[in-house]
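Blinded run. Sample ID left blank on purpose so nobody reads anything into the name before looking at the predicted structure. Input follows.
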Amino acid sequence: MYLRILFLLVIFFSPIILNAEQENNCDCAYTPKMSKDNPYPELTPFKDCGEIDTKGILKIKKEHLDNIFFDKDDLACVYTQGPRTFYVRPDGKTIEAHYFDNGCDYFIEGLARGIVNRRMVYLNKKLEIIIDTPYAMIFPFKNGYAIVCNDCQKVQIDEHTGFKTDKCGYIDHKGQVVVPLEYSIKNLPSINQIIK
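Blinded prediction complete.
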């Protein structure tokens, strides 16, 4: 009787345990290196690229790391399910990128937006965190300042997802608040109107 119950428990829970182990394994897409067989590589899907650990870090397998095309800054954008995007460097260092314009966020004024421990950060091309922010949403820097917001609510705008909030302001490149988070995103004045 006990063996029969044990057998049923093993049969019932084995798929759950196996799936839990496989949940972190991920397929991905990236642009592979140019080769004789592939002289004009494009974004290509691949199976079992690595895993995303519990901290949200992509650990990409060596065979994929060796196959990725890296740009002049030694960076590549790797896409995973979600959609989630990750910046990847040839040494295997990765950081989740803010998903923007169907890919990894752009570097503007030397910084791009990333996600670390579910928090938005600004990072450089070496994937070093330059500004670790407490904000729910951060925007790219423009002329030394960036819009930052808290208490955001997602809203659907046509085919895009946006947000609304009444708590936006500006920070500088040091991460210091230069305009308090007291404005709605719609009524936030231009930084040029405030900083003279």
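Unblinding after everyone has recorded impressions. The chain has a mean pLDDT of 86.
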